[in-house]
Amino acid sequence: MTIETPAVGRRTVLGAAVGAAALTSGPALAAAPPDILVGAVYPLSGNAAPIGNDARVALETAAAIINGHHDVPMLLGQGGGLPALGGAKIKLIFADSQNSPQIAQSEAERLITQDKVVAIIGSYTSATAVTISQICNRYEVPYISAENSAPSLSEQGLTWFFRPSPTDIAYQASTPSLAVEAARLRAANADVLMPSSYTNDAILLVRSMHNVGYTPKAIMAQDAGFIDPAFIAAVGPLAEGVMSRSSYASDAEKTRPAIPKVNALYKSGTKGKDLDDLSAREFTALQVLADAINRAGSTKNTALQAALKTTDIPGNQTIMPWKGIKFDATGQNILGNPVIQQYQHGAWHTIFPADVATADAIWTVGT
Amino acid sequence: MTGAAAHTIETRRRTQLLVGAGLLVGLIILPVLIPSPYWRGLMVLVLLYAGLSQGWNVLGGYCGQISLGHALYFGLGAYTSTLLFTRLGIPPTIGLFAGGALGGAAALLVGWPCFRLSGHYYAIATLVFGLIGLLLVENWDWVGAAEGITIPFRQQSWIDLQFRIAVLPFDYAMLAYAALAWLVAWLVEGSRWGFYWRAVKDDSIASRSLGVRVFPSKMAAAAISGAITGVGGALYAQYIGFIDPPSTFGLSLSVLIALPAVVGGVGTLWGPLLGAAVLIPVQQISIAKLGGAAGGVDLMIYGGLILVLALVRPQGLISLFGIRGAAGDAVVENG
């Protein structure tokens, strides 16, 4: 099933107009460059379907910005297609993995061999990423892993695997900087709680702590339940001062000026959802791929692979709070640092690292 | 049994063998004529499920013991050959026999307490055993727990069943598997065990009074069925290159293994193959054509088709051809 972005529809009309003009003015006018087909494999049915459908909107948003004229302050945000390919448009072809490794594999194989996509983006779960990345490697087609976080994926020795997003290991690697903060706390005779739990447990934990009168100096949560809006809604002011790691910082618009426009476009596509940790990374995955195709100046697989290997995008040209995007030999982004956010005065603020921080850390919890 | 009846059965069995041989030749040529890797991949899945469902059919069809836990034997086969390969370097072509042996042994272990249960209780018990297997593997770190095991690609090799583009070689690997499963079913169908099973299925008390050893018959059917399923699991693991608990021990897989036999014709020689040849392409093509549009329309169509078939042809698709089950059994009587 192919999904046409609004911009592609416009291009078709334009193409027809060009065709009509060519009839009268002879062969002087060149035909519009062919669309660049990009496959996207996500769970679009079953338990994980809501996440897959958000991913679809995130990718369509990226394609609409690159193809259209939204004039977003980021790399390729000026729109009008890929300049190095004569304004060629990105066309996304979605496939449903049903979250099954086997279906993900056969659908990836279909996208590559039937639809002739130039690259595949995916896939939410690591199990489907394994089979898609292996098929891509065998057919020598790049696989852009948007948000699969298992470190083992980049340890498979695959030369067509590229992951702009940090892995779970990167989060662990970022803990030395956390340790500095923790050491500061320890010096101040403070105590830090570092929970990692789903929404219900997070709510229970914070409420019980309040009930027994225990107030740690800081709560450093690991994403998950603590950043769920339902958590904030349930515990209200008790959430003040809670910190969490994240890979997206919605408040970083001062240093990431593209965020407001991208978020607004995404929000209209999802009927009211803001970009989050997953959708922001999916959006960025297509931006990274489009940049590589543009620099390659062609859709030939080896040229595209070489271009991906030399990717070097500064963080402020994206919507991510990362230092930038640059791949190592395993295809892992080495500039993708996660951030730490804190819930202050009723909103999440980024407090680390300093270059994207919008607030200073507060060392109290609750009000 | 009269001499004339025995003669008719023998003639029909010979005909079936000839049809089987002819079909085998056709299927050997077919992949070469299929131009696209995607369609070749579809053939791999059809043959895999034909073999798996044929295995299920031995126990669930001929012997009438409905199992909803065959993913347990499938998963054991997949994990056994994969671990032997990734941990000890033992080629999957050897590992698949170990996987089959373990699948058969597990089916015996499940059968030992459960065959004393009758009717629906056996089906429920197999369901529970299947889920226990899933939970154990999900929490067992040494076998990769919930994360599963990735089979690294080493080199193009028939011994290791590893191929850069796997679809064409696996068309033949799965064809060999489906053909052997069919041959096993053909052999047991005409054997003493086959007659015992059908007697047990129709009326286990009456058959016992006639001297059929009911419990050993069921155990034999379970062992053969579990072994065929285990071998299929090992082949699947090598084809996909990745196994994790839900995709190899999941309940939905147990249903998918039984479905082709049920739709094609339970307790018949050709039912599982026919069922797989109809169901798998419908499933895969509906995913390809409609899956990208979201909303699960492909799943509704697939489910609707099964529902319609169950209503219109409860005897299975095979009855469209006027073919009856082996020795004049289930198909006609149940229909």
Automatic annotation (TrEMBL), chain A:
InterPro entries for this protein: BCAA_transport (IPR051010), Leu-bd (IPR028081), Peripla_BP_I (IPR028082), TAT_signal (IPR006311)
Keywords: Amino-acid transport, Signal, Transport
Chain ranges of the Leucine-binding protein domain: 36-167, 169-323
Signal peptide: 1-30
GO BP annotations, alphabetical order: amino acid transport
Family annotation (SUPFAM superfamilies): Periplasmic binding protein-like I (SSF53822)
Family of this protein: Belongs to the leucine-binding protein family.
Protein name: ABC-type branched-chain amino acid transport system, substrate-binding protein
TrEMBL record, chain B:
Recorded topology in the membrane: Multi-pass membrane protein
CDD domains: TM_PBP1_LivM_like
First-listed, main subcellular location of the protein, grouped into a coarse class: membrane
Membrane-traversing stretches: 17-34, 40-59, 71-90, 96-115, 122-143, 163-188, 219-239, 251-280, 292-312
Keyword Isomerase: no
InterPro entries: ABC_transp_permease, LivM-like
Keywords: Cell membrane, Membrane, Transmembrane, Transmembrane helix
Compartment(s) where it occurs, according to its Swiss-Prot or TrEMBL record: Cell membrane
Any one cellular-component term (Gene Ontology): plasma membrane
MF-aspect GO terms: branched-chain amino acid transmembrane transporter activity
Any Pfam family the entry gives: BPD_transp_2
UniProt name for this protein: Amino acid/amide ABC transporter membrane protein 2, HAAT family
